[in-house]
Write a structure and sequence with these properties.
This protein is of the alpha/beta class and 288 residues long. The protein is built from eight helices and ten strands. It binds zinc ion. It holds the Pfam family Polysacc_deac_1.
């Protein structure tokens, strides 16, 4: 896939996103969802526009039993009882940028894959350290490499929707946005047995239609806090430094496992992941 970079305006988009949602957060751990909305997070942002968004319903604060020193690998929780049906999420006005209320927790995300040249090595490193991450896959890549998507899910990683062909969403008609997102959700569901619960717009370029369609498909929008800019191939050391400098509670890190030569991204993970763990961070995935 293409880099998460637009020829124009990405910096501006990010500034706008930061201004609108600098404190947008989502809880990491939830009790089993019912059709009732969850409690708003303590750090829910002030509404940026006259129409207030619904309170973020993606999660409750972390359970106190998941103290930062207790686990590196978050225990798997049980499946929701069958009597509870997962509610469609509300239509957001901006993506989540970070996670809330879970102590020294961080989330690693890898976009644009899977790519057989890089994804297996990333999966091996994550497995070696017993941590889970999020992979925002492109449908056309997932359809070519279903074995890798299955391996992500089998290892407990969250497989998210990153569109089918990595277009600039705001340039598409709503019908095309729907095709991009629904076809990708379908291939993920066919491959893993579960439809994705999260999506991320290519280039971080969202629009109202994408929020509406994503919600219809049962997905919450997740952006990121720290961009490693690994697609620019800045050198392994630079990627490592960006992650470690940006580390903090609730931080969501953006990297790539496809879209170009990602060997620096692969090597950097081997260095920064054990360092984050040594610093006491839990690397985990959001729960919905
Ligand atoms: Zn991307």
């Amino acid at each position: 896939m293409k880099d998460d970079q637009t020829p124009t305006g990405r910096r501006r988009l990010l500034r706008i996103a930061a201004a609108l949602g600098a404190t947008t957060t989502v809880g990491l751990f939830t009790v089993d969802r019912t059709d009732a909305p969850g409690p708003p997070t303590a750090t829910a942002p002030a509404p940026p526009s006259p129409a207030p968004p619904p309170a973020p319903a993606a999660g409750a604060p972390a359970s106190p039993r998941l103290a930062p020193t207790a686990y590196r690998l978050q225990p798997m929780t049980s499946y929701a009882p069958p009597r509870f049906r997962r509610a469609l999420p509300p239509v957001r006005q901006r993506p989540f940028l970070r996670m809330a209320g879970a102590g020294n927790t961080m989330v690693l995300t890898f976009d644009d894959g899977p790519d057989p040249r890089y994804t297996p090595a990333i999966l091996r490193t994550l497995r070696a350290h017993g941590v889970r991450a999020m992979f925002f896959v492109c449908g056309e890549m997932a359809a070519q490499h279903p074995d890798l998507v299955r391996r992500m899910a089998d290892d407990g990683h969250v497989v998210g929707n990153h569109s089918w062909s990595h277009p600039l969403i705001p340039k598409l008609r709503p019908s095309r946005i729907r095709e991009e997102l629904s076809s990708t959700s379908a291939v993920i569901e066919q491959t893993t047995g579960s439809a994705p619960l999260w999506y991320r717009a290519p280039f971080g370029a969202w629009n109202r239609h994408s929020f509406e369609i994503g919600a219809e498909l049962g997905m919450e929008p997740l952006a990121w806090t720290v961009d490693t800019l690994d697609w620019k191939e800045p050198g392994t050391g630079t990627i490592v430094r960006r992650v470690l400098d940006g580390a903090g509670p609730g931080v969501v890190v953006l990297s790539h496992d496809a879209g170009g030569d990602r060997s620096q991204s692969v090597a950097a993970l081997r260095t920064y992941l054990p360092q984050l763990l040594d610093e006491g961070y839990h690397i985990t995935v959001p729960r919905r």
